[in-house]
Amino acid sequence: MSITQMKDFQTHNLLEVENLQMHFPVKGGFFRRTIGAVKAVDGVSFTIRKGETLGLVGESGCGKSTTGRSILRLLTPTGGKVIFENEDITNVNGKRLRDIRQDIQMVFQDPYASLNPMQMVGDIVSEPIHNYYKNKNKEELKTEVMDLLTRVGLPEEAYYKYAHEFSGGQRQRIGIARALALKPKLIIADEPVSALDVSVQSQVLNLLNELQDEFDLTYLFIAHDLSVVKHMSDRIGVMYLGNIVEVADKHSIYDNPMHPYTQALISAVPDASKMGEKRERIVLQGDVPSPENPPSGCPFHTRCPKALDRCSSIKPTLKEVKPGQHVACILYD
Amino acid sequence: MEVVHNKNSQTENSTTKPQKSMSPWAMARRKFMKNKLAMISLSYLIVLGILSFLAPYITTADISRVNIGDMSLAPSAEHWFGTDTSGRDVFTRLLYGGRVSLLVGISCTAIILFIGTLIGSVAGYFGGAVDSMLMRFTDFILNFPFLVFVIVLNAILFGIVSGVWVLIVVLSILGWGGVARLVRSKILSEKENEYILASISIGCKPGKIILKHLLPNVLTTVIVQATILFATMIVAESGLSYLGFGVPQEVPSWGNMLAASQQPEVLQNMPWIWVPPALVLILTILSINFIGEGIKEALNPKSYR
């Protein structure tokens, strides 16, 4: 990539997330007072450039999905900023929010729960268009939807069928067609293949890749499967307990992970090309702490094999340690 | 790419080109039609409805005029079910009574379903303060002592609204609480599905989400509840009329006809006066329950007959 292209990329940040916080109040005691908060997302920052795929990995409950939903404003963040196309959309409401959602769409995790069982597939896919373009010609709409269905690899007859007549992978294709219907700029894919068979996973991933080129899409790809993320992403953000601990392009993450948590994650990926060789496997001790009561300082210090004394008092921030590789760890200060 | 067909569509002629798949409703209807007991019950109710509706064309006897000459006659060719203590034809009154009882049942059910679904779905979908406010109001309605309020409201509304409609309004005002709670609880669980999040993200407005996405998916429960409600309302009408707080006494209804059996002599010696309304009432309630059961089974995807 030439330097001019790099510059061009940098000026075209499609999405910027700054210090995003999503704390869910915990209520209890008399009169349901707020007695605490689950800090599902606690200060997440990243940017997505136009046309790229940012992968977000982390174990269950680390706040990946919550981050995705906060960006689409399905949840209202309790702090921080979401900037989409240079507009702060953190607190927009009503009509403007609805307009913005035309440009950001989501592919959901559960292909069974994310389609209304009472609607025909044709209606499911045409509904977004119908919502924004009320006066669209019915015949035109139908052809458009049929084209979309064919594009995601479904037969045209699917238009007249109901979701329960399809398999998991096909249902996920319907969900993708629905997300595409409005020709969005950003698609948040919230673990789109984690509920599918391994054999079907790759088909859906390839479809997503093809569509990215064809429709000029930008993805925020959320997953917990490291090989899936590696296949899909240009850059990868690693999350732990509501924080991003490392962001870098995928080669840096896989070949030269810097944060101790990333190192442990990567060491857990089986590598078929190194069969027989003895690998160094970093096994983390203990469990993920509760996000309701996260550890002081670095969220990872309770399990970190390289923890120092001051890790429990200083909360590290993301710093550019190598060009393009941001790490939140005091080892690199 | 393999499309999973359901069993029914395969048995039909599979040679036809892109045919519409059966909607979940169509499949339920099919299953319901196969349920014999429910179909018999349904036909009974339809016949009863038609007979009652066409009562003025079927019998010509005067329903309200007291006829001293024909008092308490046993069944005969002229009076099929005999006459009551005021000399009125029991068969004629039975048909006209069916009109009133069914009218009360249907109208109450419709009004209650409307109010209950509206309040329940709004409370369930929006949650928070809206939910608390609406649900406290619902609790308030549910806590009314039923009989006392029927009597009081009857007295207040008397003269403002005419005849049976007093009772319909009263029963509806007091009856929607249960439906509202039911719908709310169903919506609360249904709205956690990802397709509701999806519908928000594709730009659906709250009204559309409730009407197009949530209600069709909770409707099954509501429909079953409606049949129970229908039966309950007919029983309530009869019970109140029997006690003298229901439909005005000059209007024939099954409950009013049963009230005649309060006289020991009628109860002991003139079964033709009270047995027909009691029998029709029992059969009606039974068949409504069978239909409800049939609908429940038809809407349950796990049951196969």
TrEMBL record, chain A:
GO molecular function, one term: ATP hydrolysis activity
GO biological process, alphabetically ordered: peptide transport; transmembrane transport
Keywords, sorted A to Z: ATP-binding, Nucleotide-binding, Transport
Pfam families, alphabetized: ABC_tran, oligo_HPY
Domain ABC transporter: 15-266
Signal sequence range: none
NCBIfam families per record: oligo_HPY, PRK11308.1
UniProt similarity note: Belongs to the ABC transporter superfamily.
PANTHER family (UniProt xref): ABC TRANSPORTER, ATP-BINDING PROTEIN, TRANSPORT ATP-BINDING PROTEIN
Entry protein name: Peptide ABC transporter substrate-binding protein
From TrEMBL, chain B:
SUPFAM superfamilies: MetI-like
A single cellular component GO annotation: plasma membrane
Protein location: Cell membrane
Entry keyword set: Cell membrane, Membrane, Transmembrane, Transmembrane helix, Transport
Membrane topology: Multi-pass membrane protein
Signal peptide interval: none
Regions that span the bilayer: 37-58, 102-128, 140-158, 164-183, 214-236, 272-292
Top-level taxonomic group: Bacteria
Region (Disordered): 1-22
Pfam entry (one): BPD_transp_1
InterPro entries per record: BP-dependent_transpt_permease, MetI-like, MetI-like_sf, Oligopeptide_permease_AppC, OppC_N
GO BP: transmembrane transport
ABC transmembrane type-1 domain: residues covered: 98-292
Principal location: membrane
PANTHER family, per the entry: D,D-DIPEPTIDE TRANSPORT SYSTEM PERMEASE PROTEIN DDPC-RELATED, OLIGOPEPTIDE TRANSPORT SYSTEM PERMEASE PROTEIN APPC
Family note: Belongs to the binding-protein-dependent transport system permease family.
NCBIfam families named in the record: Opp4C
Protein name: Peptide ABC transporter permease
Organism: Pontibacillus yanchengensis Y32
